[in-house]
Amino acid sequence: MSSHDFSDNSQLIQRLKKGDQKAYTYIIDMYFDKLCVYGYGLSRNTAIAEDIVQNCLLKTWEKRAQLEETLSLKSYLYKMVYNEFVDIYRRNKSVSALEENYQKSVESFMVTDDEESFQAAVNAVRKEIDKLPEKCKNIFILSKKEGLTNAEIAEHLGISIKTVEAQITKAFSILREIFKDKLPYILFTLFR
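-> structure tokens emitted (192 positions)
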């Protein structure tokens, strides 16, 4: 079947439902760039737009058996890209709201304590981090300052994830013992 036969929407969906990879390739060739332009119009970010479009095309392939033959594939794809963008926007908005709340609580903490004593507390935390056992300190810094996941740290250092978790817990318990409730705010300021 040549690609020009795919111009009929219902035939294209029929071929797609049967797992015809040429039909899928045709959809990618036909819609990828157009959908990316549309996605960019929504997100104003090329990388996000491309990710959204790739996800939508992949989902279309994965759920091809459920496609109705009367469906307008073009409308379906555009709607899918739009919905994916809205989902990402909502997720990011809720993350932003959490960050905003945390920032407000940090600011209120800083208002109740004067700037000088807060800076002294930050310096004291730095000193205590430096006093941690070497392995514990390195793992703690990789986690908090570099933002690596426990799995990434484990792989990077050639140790188990359990060891990473134990060392981070150890660091937190030592620091919490000294700084009590102020610790999260100080760490947030120190490592943001």
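Residues 73-112 form the longest helix (40 residues).
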